[in-house]
Amino acid sequence: MHVSLFIPCFVDQLTPQVGLAVATVLERLGHTVEFRSAQTCCGQPSFNAGYWDEARGVASRAVEVFAGAEAVVGPSGSCVAMMKVFYPQLLAGTPHETAALDLAARTFEFGEFLVNQLGVTDVGARFPHRVSYHDGCHGLRELRIRDEPRKLLAAVRDLELVECDEPESCCGFGGLFSVKFPMVSTAMAEVKAGSLARTDCDYIVSSDPSCQLQLDGWLSKNGKRPRTIHLAEVLAGEVA
Amino acid sequence: MNSRPQEANEAAGQAILARVREALRLPAPPPHIRSQTPTAGPAAHPGLAILPAEASRPWLPDGGDSPAESLGIFTENLATLRAECVRVADMNAAAAWLAGQARQRGWQRVAFHDDPLIASVVEVLPCDRYRVDSPGESCDKTMLEACDAGVSGCECLIAQTGSILVSSNQGGRGLSILPHVHVVLARVDQIVPMLSDALAVVRQQHQGRLPSMLSFITGPSRTGDIERILVLGAHGPKELLVILVG
Amino acid sequence: MSSPATTAAAEHPRPGVAKKQFLHDAAEHVRDTGHRDFVRRALGGYYLSRDTQKARFRDWEQARDAASLAKWSAVNRLDELLPEFVANFESGGGRVHWARDAAEARAIILGLLAEADAKAVIKSKCMTSEEIHLNAALEEAGYGVVESDLGEFIQQLRGEPPYHFVFPCMHVRRDEISDLFGKHLGTEPTDSPEELTMIARRHLRRLYVEADVGITGANFLVAETGQISITENEGNARLTVALPRIHIAIAGIEKLVARLDDLAVLLPMLAAAGSGQPMTCYNTLYGGPRQAGECDGPEAMHLVLLDNGRTALLADAEQRDALQCIRCGACLNVCPIFKNVGGFTYGTTYQGPIGSVITPHLRGLAEWNHLSGASSLCGACTDACPVRIDIHHHLLHNRRNAARTAPSRLERLGQRAFAFVARRPWLFAAGGWLFRKTLPLAKTLRPPPLSAWLATRDLPAAPRQSFRSAWRRRSR
Description:
The complex is a heterotrimer. Chain A is built from 13 helices and eight strands.
């Protein structure tokens, strides 16, 4: 399959290694990968703040950028949910409506793509650590992804997966919410990061760079371990 | 100040209904349902999906497929609800059991309502009795409040939820709620599997006019208002005793 | 909130006032980690029992569909069902009183009390009465009013509104309740929830017998039979409707269901989602006052049917499903915002996610849109809702509506600038480069909104190159 990478802004500017890891895993599985450099942001910041007209301009551009791609795969449940779930609503009644629906059907979150589209759970990786998985809310509730990343992690050699006691709690990022209501956002980070830290894991695995920013930000500020790592980085690691 | 004239009330009602009709001119988006469900539109709103009432039966908690199964589910639910349930062979045994309770608990006075079965049980109790529904008289609420227990019949029992359906026909509104102990005397064949069956029973029983009160009682009165810790006997009966006859 | 003037100010604050208060109260609450832990612990038992009850359903998701459809179709047929209900209810001997707004509802109830020459009023838990600030109005008119639900009774003694619309005093510790009872009722201190409950039981018993009027809410109004349905655990509503000579119920017009059989789905759903029970202890249907041949019950039954902004929400077809709410409180119990800011911070009658959805419709979008902003949109509420209200997406819809009707100029400028950049890949890439290069400086200067982030969280160091440059290099 020829996969077109959908790289969220956070990955582009702060964690490029995540995007590279996605490409590495897909290529290792025998697929070809492209990156359409005309892509920018998915428009979610505007959409979530209520500025739908502004978001619509950005979204219709993204629909055009990814036109004709066989599959669009992104390492973020949140940004993929924007394309898969919200673009069709946002662009309903516009000239881009059909293209948005078409794109939604071909867009996938990275872990979900491996398990449900490629039928792969074992990518042959080894990661000799104790990890806990943090469900990003958009992946969990907009895309209904829960078991897929766990299946992938279960197949990684020497990896021990432990669940925390707040598995479905939000980390409190929420985009602009994190700076508009910083004290609430931080209290949520404290609850979720605290729960993950109590598992005594070496790494928190996540499929959402924005959740990682929030959890790492709080953990680092408070001098606590562990740190997060993206699912793609775990899977692209050392080949068993 | 006095109550509002009827014309003013009607005007307010017309105004609200006009707003409702105006609001509903915009059709609703489809319902947010996940699974496929059989639907049919009502006569006045053919565009609206409505689920036949019986369709949900297989999705709700189970009430049993046979009387024996329903009995088992009912008594199990009562135990979980911390109600006491005793099964006796006949009315004499019921009377003997209740008399034992009255002696053991030192009941001074027990309230009851007019019903041939209940009268036969209450008659032999070793304490005073207060009938709440003497002909031509209202129930004396002070007297009822002072009773140690209230003995009532019921419309039916619901296995699915462990509920007892009483109505104002079983001694009015106070008998099953005001005394500290509520004793329900029922026949085993009064158990129905599901809540919807119970509603069918009362419709059947009271064709034309339903009693002014129908109450599903599910366990003794309770509260979790203090630190979400369960306490029985918040305002209603602390104890619920169910005597199943037959 | 004792005088009508302060009530009106609380109801419709100037834009910005409620938001400022929210931010202030949220910050205060967040600092009280002991309180937050206490509330979290109190909810721990709820999660367990809710899951136990959900598992008893043979198909929880399909049952949710059934419950959702029952309410969805009723809300969309209100034009037909309201008249049907009123006709059936009145044929049972009750009287319906229509109230367009809170003031009209209060006037109706004061009129009924005067007509009945009432002195003492006993109430069972009723959120619509909180919504119309009834207690203050009754007390001002000289009536003795006692809340009989244990949680509401405690809140009344504390002089506070409910903290949570189902668990009114879940934030209060037992030692505080013991002190409260000692102060108001002269009882000995105790740390036993059971003994505290019995103190309230003994105190209130006499009051049911003495009250002339009982005021309740209603959870459902059944069009087919003209009955109102009241759900409760303690038996206080049963007593409130059994002993006083007048019964006044207050209900929003959205409480309608078409058929009696709809309750066979809705009652178990309400109990499972709301409190983790197979059924709430007492689910009682009242078709009118005492009938001929019945030995007790009130001589008159009145029902106040309240609009108070509900038709405005009904007119918003997109969010109309919010009127399906059966007030189970499940969305509050799972909401990370509620758990961290507490019930009072909202400043609304209906707290939590559903409150944040409906309050802007009931009381004005300009003043109350900040509640829709105060959410990470995690969606736990929507998953918990037994009638499938699209709660968190409606928060998004409120944000969109507010951006259209009352945008913040600064934010709109920022959003437009961002959209301008995001439509131009070269500019976007340049912006990213600038962001990475200036990040170390920005961390020192801390301009807003970065300052809000950095106060409690670190930011990682920016990598030397962006993904797009890394990809170019990799592809060469």
